[in-house]
Specification:
Elements: E1 16-18, E2 25-27, H1 46-55, H2 62-67, H3 69-78, H4 84-93, E3 114-117, E4 124-128, H5 130-142, H6 145-156, H7 176-184
Antiparallel strand pairs: 1-2, 3-4
């Protein structure tokens, strides 16, 4: 039983809303909050959402996940228009290595390479390790200028002497090989 009252989003423009699932017109408080929708509420009413969720397999249940791992993986790949066979062909073509750093990720799980895709077009690019995929996502969301800032920051705090750079924020690095060695911890 819910102990807190249902709230109404400040984005809501009316006190009633039509449920997209059952078609009924209901008070806005019968729709859960959703920051992604323009009116601040889900498009299905709470009753329809609850009924739908009861019919779905318990994907968060560890026993279900263990017995349906291939099915779950297929669902995830389908978002990118890939099948499990397509994914395996890509892994084979990349020799199990990340397309950016070239490392073979530790095989903590069966599929340790992630599918990289363009968020604007949805086009699948290549397979990346978790760290490179996260880095690329952050660079894409904040702009390529972030990468220059990271390199300048690493240069600023490194013991590598590349020469004098007047401004860390405006000058690009001259010798990225030394900075890359610093990033991985090796110095000559």
């Amino acid at each position: 039983m819910r102990t807190t009252p249902h709230t109404v989003s400040p984005k809501a423009t009316s006190v009633e809303k039509n449920c997209k699932k059952c078609g009924g017109k209901k008070p806005i408080v019968e729709f859960a909050l959703c920051k992604n929708n323009p009116d601040g509420h889900f498009s299905w009413c709470r009753a329809c959402s609850s009924a739908y969720n009861k019919t779905r397999p318990a994907r968060s249940n560890p026993a279900w996940r263990k017995t349906n791992n291939e099915k779950l993986w297929g669902y995830q790949l389908r978002r990118y228009g890939l099948t499990v066979a397509d994914y395996n062909k890509r892994v084979e073509a990349q020799m199990g290595k990340c397309a950016i750093c070239g490392d073979i990720p530790p095989s903590r799980k069966k599929r340790s390479l992630e599918v990289d895709h363009c968020h604007a077009t949805g086009k699948v690019r290549e397979l990346l390790c978790s760290k490179c995929n996260t880095l690329l996502g952050r660079v894409e969301s904040r702009g390529v200028n972030l990468l220059n800032k990271v390199l300048n920051y690493m240069y600023k705090h490194s013991a590598v002497s590349v020469g004098s750079i007047p401004s860390y924020k405006t000058q690009r690095l001259q010798n990225t090989n030394e900075v890359q060695r610093c990033l991985v911890g090796g110095r000559r």
